[in-house]
Amino acid sequence: MPETKKSSGRISSRKLSNLKVVVLCIAAAATFWILNALNKDNYTTIVDYPIAWSFDEDKYMAVQPLPESFPIQISGDGWDLLRKYFKLNEPPFVINLADPASRSYILTADLKRPLGDFITPTTLLGALEDSIHFKIDKIETRSLDLAVDSTSFSLAKNVEIDGEIIFSPKKITLTGPSSLLDSFEGKFPVSLAENRISENFKKTVPVGIDKNLADFVRLKEHTVEVSFSIIQYLEGNKRLKITKINFPKSVSLEKEDITPMMTYLVDENKVADLKEVEFEAFLDYGKRNRVDSTISIEVRPIPKYIKNITVEPAIFKLKYD
User: Fold this and answer.
1) What is the DSSP-derived secondary structure letter of residue 288?
2) To 10 degrees, the CA torsion angle through 187, 191, 194, 195?
């Protein structure tokens, strides 16, 4: 049986040599074409030209990232445009701001002449945007009142704060951009980090700036003493005597035999005083609900040291003979 030659699948050294020559020729031609093209003038392109900002950083602060470039249309020779397109050794154009807090943008038309001189020999044809926006505030120092963050603590059952919360020092000093200081609205929140407070409070607590403001705002004080007194209320109840006012003889209550029960909270320091008070449930016929013929109980007296008064039943149905 005749033998057949198997293909090795390899390119011969002669063919490989010829292929290298072809590739080198193509590369040389492309390089020559590119170099020749780059040496020509009057190319036009759009680039994001780098910019930098100059202002008195002791008096002003950027509260938003400042633009690092803006798009412009330029013309020139190929080499020059290539450098500017890829930002090869191209220094940024510096925008000087004497009073940056007085405005929030700069017109690109105002930059055309100085920028045109800066990028010579490239020719500036124009900017693609009308303006460049920025947010730079004046740095100020303010003293703010203190206020307890109501979400940072809780009181025990039937406990209330008695009087004002006292701070030492009374105010806190902040330094930072004016718009961020305005956001505090004159009050600096203090966190107590306490739950179910049931006795008079006095504690030195740390104060700090939120993480999103920490890079902009500085605090002079780092702790503050907070103190306040509390009132403990006790639960109580009393049966009430009903007193009718302005009732005609022909009108009575559907349920005359019911004795109302009053429940309340009383300041624990006033329990003894409460023993001297005689509560009554008044039913004034002149204040009746004419639609459904009902009348509501009015409790008297109501001392300032009791609260959360409820009466059961609170409403009586009238009966007409």
Assistant:
1) -
2) 60
Residue that the structure tokens 């017109």 belong to: 107
> How far is Cα 103 from Cα 88, in angstroms, rounded to an integer?
32
Q: How far apart are CA 51 and CA 44, in angstroms?
A: 21
Nearest Cα to Cα of residue 205 among 194, 184, 191, 219? 191
Q: How far is residue 118's CA from residue 50's CA, in Å, rounded to a whole number?
A: 12
Chain centroid offset of residue 109 CA: 35
Tokens read off for 176: 């930072």
Task: Tell me the three state secondary structure of residue 25.
Answer: helix
Residue 244 phi, psi dihedral angles, 5° rounding: -90, 140
CA distances from 211 to 205, 217, 218 (A): 18, 10, 12
**How far apart (Å, rounded) are the C-alpha atoms in residues 56 and 54?**
7
- How far apart, in whole angstroms, are the C-alpha atoms of residue 60 and residue 140? 9
DSSP H helical segments within the chain, as ranges? 13-38, 78-85, 112-118, 178-182, 271-274
> Residue 115: how many CB atoms within 10 A of its CB?
19
In angstroms, the CA 293 to CA 204 distance is 59
| Residue-wise pLDDT tens digits, 95-140 | 999 999 999 999 999 999 999 898 888 888 899 999 999 999 999 9
Task: Please state the separation of Cα 115 from the chain's center in Å.
Answer: 38
pTM > 0.85: yes or no: no
Assigned token pair, 258: 């019911």
C-alpha pair distances (Å), 121 with each of 78, 79, 116:
12, 11, 9
Identity of residue 71: P
DSSP sequence for 88-138:
SS-PPEEEE-SSGGG-SEEEGGGGHHHHHHHTTTSEEEEESSSEEE--EEE
DSSP label of 289: B
**Which residue is it, tokens 């004016």?**
178
Token pair 């009586």: residue? 316
69-79 residue pLDDT tens: 999 888 877 66
